[in-house]
Design brief:
Keywords: Oxidoreductase
GO molecular function: 3-methylbutanoyl-CoA dehydrogenase activity; flavin adenine dinucleotide binding
CATH topology of the largest domain: Butyryl-CoA Dehydrogenase, subunit A, domain 3
Structural class: alpha+beta
GO biological process, one term: L-leucine catabolic process
Oligomer: single chain
Radius of gyration: 22 Å
Largest sheet: 8 strands, mixed
Distance between the termini: 38 Å
Pfam families: Acyl-CoA_dh_2, Acyl-CoA_dh_N
Protein name: Acyl-CoA dehydrogenase
Mean pLDDT: 94
Number of domains: 3
Length: about 400
């Protein structure tokens, strides 16, 4: 397989979005297979790669289309409309474009030989990196490596040691430094422990690395950009498209519920479901909540991009504007879970079989709510920031 390029000509944002939307029905048909496989089937990975989704974070300097954050978000939303797991893996796998802003240009050229390479990994500093001549020996056991089985590259967090002792750079504010280490995906040993309620097809298993040599230049920190200032050179940039996953799921569930309701007849009441006050009001209420959540995500992301693309920095945003990006993503996850639960109840026994997409969306949104964009730590961190206190997690706010 040649992963250097999958296209004869550069793809623009409109074409990538068109391909993503065209792939969605195929992904919906493959949903049960994706879930049963517990990771994306190899041919599904290549179908995703052919859309151009994995290059959406790359700018022209690294062979990408230079999409804005709202445009990237729209692509992930379109894929998630087809399948939740595919959408999540697409969003995670596309973070390579963001990472190139934190690597040296030399490392980017060596690692990202083409914009369609898939990146996976775990940012948690669960590993140990021993300093050796020319680089590091990296070992560890990392959790939640979404897409690790089909990744071309892995980024993994680790604490640094020298001669077996904790190490920190002379100018470091910390007693013990950690950083990110990029290695080939083939270096990882996946652990077969991804057997979950939902998002089963993401293959978000643990993985192990044992004494893998990482050259000095193939390391980075999300808090130290190594390129000229640009809107993607911020620590939150790789997360901005992920709210597309709950948005895509919610839109798919709403469309499915409307289709079912328009074709069902209530024999006991002697009328169609479309004539039911209960069905009408619940569908409308769910639509309203989705529309508000979606507008919130896109408005916050567009405002952020507007400031950054004009040469500004995130500190130029007001406190509420800066907090709106992670909060709107969190809200989209919560709305997805609420709407899907209510539509599941609305459709009653047409929801309960495993071959019903409602059953899968119910479980997918339950698991999505426990992840990095849907967890209460987002509330805690943004709340602290709004009160002038240090946030527990800085990365979602783009604080260097």
């Amino acid at each position: 397989m040649n992963t250097d390029t999958q296209h004869d000509a550069p793809l623009d944002g409109a074409e990538i979005l068109r391909r993503a939307r065209a792939l969605a029905p195929v992904l919906r048909e493959r949903g049960a297979e994706i879930e049963a496989n517990r990771t994306l089937p190899a041919d599904v990975v290549e179908l995703l790669r052919a859309t151009g989704v994995f290059r959406i974070g790359h700018g022209p300097a690294t062979g990408g289309p230079g999409l804005t954050s709202p445009e990237q978000l729209e692509v992930i939303e379109a894929i998630s409309y087809g399948d939740s797991s595919a959408g999540w893996c697409a969003g995670i796998g596309a973070m390579g474009g963001a990472i190139t802003n934190f690597l040296t240009p030399e490392a980017t050229r060596a690692l990202y030989t083409g914009p369609d390479l898939i990146t996976a990994g775990s940012l948690v500093p669960a590993g140990r990196a021993e300093r050796v001549p020319g680089g590091y020996l990296l070992s560890g056991h990392w959790p939640f490596g979404s897409g690790v089985r089909h990744a071309d590259l892995l980024t993994s967090g680790a604490f640094v040691y020298q001669d077996g002792e904790p190490w920190a750079a002379p100018d470091s504010p910390h007693d013990h430094d950690s950083m990110q280490f990029v290695v080939r995906g083939s270096a990882a040993e996946p652990v077969d422990n991804w057997d979950t309620t939902g998002l089963c097809g993401t293959g978000s298993s643990d993985y192990v690395l044992n004494d893998v040599f990482v050259p000095e230049g193939h390391t980075f920190s999300f808090f130290e950009p190594r390129v000229a200032p640009n809107p993607m050179a911020w620590s939150d940039s790789f997360m901005r498209a992920l709210p597309g996953v709950p948005l895509g799921i919610t839109r798919a569930a709403l469309d499915h519920a409307r289709e079912v309701a328009s074709t069902r007849y209530d024999g006991m009441a002697g009328r169609s479901w479309a004539d039911s006050w209960r069905v009408q009001t619940e569908l409308a209420r769910c639509e309203a909540e989705f529309n508000a959540a979606r507008k919130g995500v896109y408005a916050a992301t567009r405002r952020q991009w507007e400031v950054l693309s004009a040469g500004g920095v995130l500190d130029d945003l007001s406190l509420t504007e800066r907090g709106a990006v992670p909060l709107s993503g969190l809200h989209a996850v919560h709305v997805a879970r609420s709407v899907v639960n209510r539509l599941y109840d609305l459709l009653q026994t047409w929801s309960i079989n495993h071959d019903s997409p409602m059953d899968r969306w119910l479980r997918d949104t339950a698991v999505l709510s426990q992840g990095q964009i849907g967890h209460d730590v987002v509330l805690e961190s943004v709340g602290a920031y709004l009160l002038g206190q240090p946030p527990k997690v800085r990365i979602g706010l783009g604080i260097h």
